[in-house]
Amino acid sequence: MRFTQASARFGIPKGTLYDNILGKSKRMMVLEEAGLTSDEEKAVLEYCCQTSILPYNRRTKKSLAAVVSFVEKLRQERDPDFRFTGLSGFRWWWAFCKKHGIVSLYFDPNSSSPPVDGEPSD
Q1: 26 φ/ψ sector (left φ>0, alpha ψ -120 to 50, else beta)
Q2: Which ranges in 1-122 belong to alpha helices (H)?
Q3: What tens digit of pLDDT does each residue of 53-81 get?
Q4: Cα 97 off chain centre by
Q5: CA spacing 20 to 30 A to 32: which of 25, 53, 72, 92?
Q6: In 3D, which of 50, 44, 47 has the Cα closest to residue 75?
Q7: What gap in Å lies between CA 57 and CA 43, rounded to an integer?
Q8: Within 10 A of 28 (CB to CB), how many other CB atoms are there?
Q9: pTM recorded for the entire structure
């Protein structure tokens, strides 16, 4: 679900969602903190968006939890102690989407609970 969709659905201004979920400054710095290589970023894109089939229509086919788990496993090959904590996985995903032009997150409308501020459900 996009921030604009969450804003409309829950009646929360879009700017408030951005600021409260992602923080007001250094939103893209989280990409550096995750420390993915170029090849790892390509692997994440292929995993969540199937870019080899649809290179320009970057809509995810995986949940945020699945993508974050995939990224953690990639990074743990080089740093076994790497983990996203708290909202860091979501913050990383938001910045990654901005960098790579991913236009939507996976959302399952049959889920029993609504997503948390734009976070997709499994």
Answers
A1: left
A2: 3-10, 14-17, 29-34, 38-49, 64-76, 88-100
A3: 555 566 777 888 888 999 999 999 999 99
A4: 6
A5: 53
A6: 44
A7: 16
A8: 13
A9: 0.62
